[in-house]
Amino acid sequence: MTTRMPVLFVGHGSPMNAIENSVWSRAIRALGAEMTAPRAILAVSAHWYVPGTHLTGNERPETIHDFSGFPAALYEMQYPAPGSPELARRVVEAIGTSRASVRDDWGIDHGTWSVLVHLRPAADLPVVQLSIDNRAAAAAHLEIGRAVAPLRDEGVLILGSGNITHNLRHAMAAWRDGESTTPQWAEGFDADVAAAVSAHDTDFLVRALDTEQGRMSHPTPDHYLPILYAVGAANRDDPVRFPIAGFELASLSMRAIVFG
Fold it and tell me: 9: which of 19, 106, 114, 257 fits an S-S bond (Cβ 3.0–4.6 Å)?
């Protein structure tokens, strides 16, 4: 009998968390250690933000180093998890063949592997990535999450990876200037999203980026949208908890959410 898997959203922050012994990497490892092992992982990363809804169909997905300016050790990092063409096809069927397709020209990008290297360090489970359609309205991302929710009962862990606040220009300026004070707009948006998630308030969550704090927190929506897939895949009666909270580089929320 398969155990229903929880749904996760994890703030991934800097790629350096993949190789550093940081408060964030330790917290993700602790989260992984307490979880029942899934049969497979369906990941929605902020970094596969393209026109259309696609699934990675690779038997052996590439570890993609989709960043620049970091130490060599980060580019040497590999996450050799297998793929699952079967799961990719199953997700396409759940979403609809007119809306989703399988591709083999992507792999596991750092939004996914920088989390999984701590959550599942053995890289022993099949991983499939689901892209974020950059043309779709917020409600459409929520609906895709709902469409794939039944996979939880088949032992699939649904993982969203982004950040609840992600104003990269502010974060880089804070790093350059040695600033550690979190601005009010970041604290406020993080708190508002956490409250809405706890209340399963999808009406707020689909319009959150239209608020003043939402626009400050997300000059582009890519790092926010993975949370909508996670919320969509959760049930209204799922308990919600926040095993990780806090800010990196002053304004990047590293909050993680567990549904179920």
Answer: 257
Distance of alpha carbon 106 from the chain centroid = 17
**3-state secondary structure at position 26:** helix
What distance in Å separates the CA atoms of residue 198 and residue 211, rounded to the nearest whole number? 19
Q: Are 234 and 165 in contact (CB under 8 A)?
A: no
CATH of domain 7-259: 3.40.830.10
Q: How much is the pLDDT for 3?
A: 81
Closest listed residue to residue 164, CA positions, set 242, 76, 52, 57: 242
Q: Are 141 and 233 in contact (CB under 8 A)?
A: no
Q: Which segments of the chain does DSSP mark as H helices, in order?
A: 23-34, 72-75, 85-95, 110-119, 138-148, 168-177, 184-198, 202-207, 212-217, 226-233
Report which DSSP code applies to 34: H
CA distance 223 to 218: 8
Give the residue carrying structure tokens 């359609």. Answer: 133
pLDDT digits (tens, 9 = 90+) for 147-184: 999 999 999 999 999 999 999 999 889 888 888 899 99
- Report residue 193: phi and psi, to 5°: -65, -40
